[in-house]
Amino acid sequence: MFEVKDVNGTNVVYLKGEVNAQTGLELKNSVIEMFKKTGTVVLSFKGVMYMNSSGLREIIDLLKRSKKDSKNLRLCDMSADIKEMFAFTGLDKVFKIYPDESQALKG
């Protein structure tokens, strides 16, 4: 699942476990709600053990929504496997991906 912390007005979402169709949809809906109150959301992948294509699709949908609404979606703390998935699909060129939370918060 995930946990949310407010860090100086920016919501940081700490993902945990698996990101799949079910958890990805829940995440997407929660972040869309967050965007109503803030301009930037950071997704930290530090606790993610596994992400499948369905979970990735929900994060892509979230990026589309953020662009449409002129919001910032930033990703950080990815494991080598998750980074590889984004690189293989070319999504590392589309998303704002940062090595760690502090850099993602700076933007």
Q: Provide the CATH top-level class.
A: Alpha Beta
Please bin the fraction of helical residues.
40-55%
First-residue to last-residue Cα separation? 25 Å
CATH topology: Transcription Regulator spoIIAA
Count of helical segments?
Answer: 4
Summed up, the domain count is: 1
Oligomer class: single chain
Question: Architecture, according to CATH?
Answer: 2-Layer Sandwich
Mean pLDDT: 96
Shape: globular
Structural category: alpha/beta
The CATH superfamily is STAS domain
User: Total strand count, please?
Assistant: 5
Q: Which sequence of SSEs, written as H and E, runs from N to C?
A: EEHEHEHEH
Give the SSE layout.
Blueprint: E1 2-7, E2 10-19, H1 21-35, E3 40-51, H2 53-68, E4 72-76, H3 80-88, E5 96-98, H4 101-106
Quick structural summary:
With 107 residues, the protein is an alpha/beta fold.
Short descriptors:
107 residues; alpha/beta; Transcription Regulator spoIIAA; 5-stranded mixed β-sheet
What can you see in these coordinates?
The radius of gyration is 12 Å and the shape is globular. Strand 4, helix 3 (80-88) and strand 5 form a beta-alpha-beta unit. The chain has a five-stranded mixed beta sheet with strand order 1-2-3-4-5. Helix 1 runs parallel beside helix 2. The protein contains four helices and five strands, in the order ββαβαβαβα. With 107 residues, it is an alpha/beta fold. The mean pLDDT is 96.
